[in-house]
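hiii so um. not sure if this is the right channel but i have a protein structure encoded as tokens and i wanna go backwards to a sequence. like what aa goes where. can anyone help
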């Protein structure tokens, strides 16, 4: 039991590491995290001074916390925890109990962390009957060719933008975190 918890912590750490490396570019000039603010605005000021370093952020984004109860409720519906709404990412509680359509996201990279269940997942190949459903979003009925994998608890998979992917088969209830990032 303790070993299982440690493995889960390692997998979650890897998941977060992938998320961070996909969303936080390094500054080429300094090698530092480009998202880090360089200089803070003086207390009480509404804006940073004209002398603030280029690229400095006027205010940090608010931390987002979700209780276990909120996360479980999201998994019951397969609902988003953080919608894109101007962010470069979104976080969703994915839930599947049957196969889905094939998908291709022109701009988004998907990162999945599997919590429960097992599914046959196909990446690459050629989409069958592709149709644009929204800007940058293509859906199809299946994938021909590609690489087939079995995803199960504690697996992490990163699907780069432009790569078709498809849940070909799902055994039981399949729960997974989905991070979409540009």
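sure thing!! here u go:
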């Amino acid at each position: 039991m303790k070993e299982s918890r440690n493995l889960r912590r390692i997998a979650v750490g890897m998941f977060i590491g992938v998320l961070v490396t996909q969303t936080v570019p390094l500054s080429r000039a300094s090698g530092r995290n480009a998202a880090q603010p360089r200089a803070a605005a003086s207390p009480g000021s509404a804006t940073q001074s004209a002398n603030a370093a280029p690229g400095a952020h006027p205010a940090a984004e608010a931390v987002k916390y979700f209780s276990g109860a909120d996360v479980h409720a999201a998994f019951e519906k397969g609902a988003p925890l953080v919608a894109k709404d101007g962010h470069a990412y979104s976080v969703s509680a994915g839930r599947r109990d049957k196969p889905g359509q094939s998908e291709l996201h022109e701009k988004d990279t998907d990162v999945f962390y599997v919590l429960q269940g097992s599914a046959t997942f196909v990446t690459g190949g050629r989409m069958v009957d592709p149709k644009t459903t929204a800007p940058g979003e293509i859906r199809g009925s299946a994938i021909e060719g590609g690489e087939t994998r079995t995803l199960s608890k504690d697996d992490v998979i990163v699907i780069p933008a432009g790569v078709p992917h498809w849940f070909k088969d799902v055994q039981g209830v399949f729960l997974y975190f989905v991070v979409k990032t540009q």
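oh and Residues 127 and 143 are 4 Å apart (CA to CA).
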